[in-house]
């Protein structure tokens, strides 16, 4: 009986930690989360878009396959220093001051960029690399 209780408590504890909310990272005036490699993680990040004001999706090829291991840089006059995130992707969500930003992604020597206008509602952009 004690063994069954111990096993049940262990499973409950493991489940609690497996579904813990992601912790926002902070750099200067920007909070961000990047990830989404697995379906559950991607869904979790996707649900956080509503509480962010910028979402960047990183893909490759005609079919838009999700990619990670991308060097992502966000710069703009509102930031004291550019935000540089290594091994980003496939989805990054940000909470940042409103304004105009340049988003640059580098993967395997390819560089993709976009200029985005960030306000109070979420702005989404997709940077697509060649296969």
Provide a short characterization of the protein structure:
With 131 residues, the protein is of the alpha+beta class.
Can you characterise this structure?
This protein is α+β, with helices and mostly antiparallel strands and 131 residues long. It has a single domain (21-129), classed as Sandwich (Immunoglobulin-like). The protein is 20% helix and 46% strand. It contains 2 helices and 10 strands. The strands form 2 sheets. Strands 1, 2, 3, 4, 7 and 10 form a 6-stranded mixed beta sheet that branches. Strands 6-5-8-9 form a 4-stranded antiparallel beta sheet, with no helix packed on it. The protein starts with a helix and ends with a strand. Residues 5-10 and 12-17 have low confidence and may be disordered.
